[in-house]
Amino acid sequence: MRIISGQFKGRRIEPPHNITARPTTDFAKESLFNVLNNLMDFEASASLDLFAGTGSISIELASRGCPSVLAIEQNDMHLAFIKKTLKQLGIITVFPLKADVFKFLPTTSQRFDFIFADPPYDLRTLEMLPDLVFDNQLLKDGGIFVLEHSQKNNFDAHPHFLQHRNYGNVNFTFFR
């Protein structure tokens, strides 16, 4: 896993082999951030990373100058890896939180400029995520929500659908 751009550009982070998270591939992550460069100002964005896994997206956001990233992860091993990596890099703008995403979303009063979710592709409740984000008004005006998913999911008919991008086996749907 490598950091694509920003302060830590080119740094490699190697998660332990026993981590069960499926990190977004470097190719897909680079493509995602190329699109996001045209849609948002990282240095002025409060961000939320759901199902943070290895912390790859949170760290990329911080590297690009994002002033605040809340990283939600339920797995203790993954959370420990994120915290260890943040400490090694000296990143103080990412705030890891152990929580169940489906319990966190309806209870938080925070609003974000950017929300990213990379749930397990086989998660039965994956289709609920866009509605949870919008029903709970978690995005600020003009904010963007990106959901990573497999090809079996299609969100084109969602009222907040913006665009869909496919990079191999990785699919991103953008909502606004």
Describe this structure in words.
The protein contains five helices and seven strands, in the order H-E-H-E-H-E-H-E-H-E-E-E. The protein has 176 residues and is an alpha/beta fold. The protein has one domain (37-175): Rossmann fold (3-Layer(aba) Sandwich), CATH 3.40.50.150. It starts with 25 loop residues before the first helix and ends with a strand. The relative contact order is 0.17.
Task: For this entry, give a set of tags.
Rossmann fold; 5 helices; 7 strands; 26% helix; globular; alpha/beta; seven-stranded mixed β-sheet; single chain; 26% strand; 176 residues
Q: According to CATH, what is the topology?
A: Rossmann fold
State the end-to-end distance. Answer: 28 Å
Annotation, overall tally of beta strands: 7
Mean of residue pLDDT? 96
Number of domains: 1
Q: In terms of per-residue confidence, which ranges show pLDDT below 50 for 5 or more consecutive residues?
A: none
Q: Main β-sheet: number of strands, strand sense, barrel status?
A: 7 strands, mixed
CATH superfamily, by name, is Vaccinia Virus protein VP39
CATH architecture label name: 3-Layer(aba) Sandwich
Give the helix proportion (percent range): 25-40%
| Share of residues in strands | 25-35%
Spatial order of the strands forming the largest sheet: 3-2-1-4-5-7-6
Name the structural class. alpha/beta
Number of helices: 5
Text of the CATH class: Alpha Beta
C-alpha-based Rg, rounded: 15 Å
Order of helices and strands: HEHEHEHEHEEE
- What does the overall shape look like? globular
